[in-house]
Specification:
The protein has about 130 residues and is mainly α. Helix content is about 80%, strand content about 0%. The protein is rod-shaped and about 135 Å long.
Length: about 130
C-alpha cells in the first residue's frame, strides 16, 4: 500500500502545480487585458544604468579617438616642419661652402679691392 500512496501524492502535486500555473496564466492575461501590465521597476532601473554605462563608455572611446587623431595631425605637421628646416639647413651649408671658396675670395680681392698677386715674394728673416 505504501507504493500506491506515493504515486497518488505525485499525481496530486502535479495537479496542484498545474492549477497553480493556470492561475498564474489567468492573472497574467488579466493584467494584459486590463492594459496595465505589472512593471518590474528594479529591472527597468538596472537597464537604465546599463544603458548609461554603455553610452558613457562609447563617449569615452569617441573622445579618445578624437584626441588621438588631433595628436596625429600635430605630429605630421611637426615632422613636415622638421623636414623643411633640414632642407633649409642643407641649403645654407652649401651657400656657406660657396662663399668660403678660395677662388671667390681671390676674385673679390682683385675686382673690388684692386689687389693683385705679387710676382715676387720677399721674406725677411729676423734672427
Amino acid at each position: 500500500m505504501a507504493t500506491r500512496q506515493a504515486p497518488q501524492l505525485k499525481v496530486k502535486s502535479r495537479a496542484n502545480n498545474l492549477k497553480y500555473s493556470q492561475a498564474q496564466a489567468e492573472r497574467a492575461q488579466f493584467h494584459i487585458i486590463k492594459g496595465r501590465p505589472k512593471l518590474d521597476h528594479l529591472l527597468r532601473s538596472r537597464c537604465r544604468i546599463a544603458f548609461l554605462v554603455i553610452a558613457l563608455l562609447a563617449m569615452v572611446v569617441v573622445v579618445r579617438s578624437g584626441i588621438s587623431a588631433s595628436c596625429g595631425y600635430v605630429l605630421v605637421a611637426t615632422q613636415t616642419q622638421a623636414e623643411n628646416l633640414e632642407h633649409e639647413n642643407e641649403r645654407l651649408r652649401i651657400e656657406i661652402a660657396k662663399l668660403k671658396s678660395p677662388s671667390r675670395i681671390q676674385q673679390i680681392a682683385e675686382d673690388e679691392l684692386g689687389m693683385t698677386v705679387p710676382r715676387r715674394m720677399y721674406f725677411s728673416h729676423e734672427n
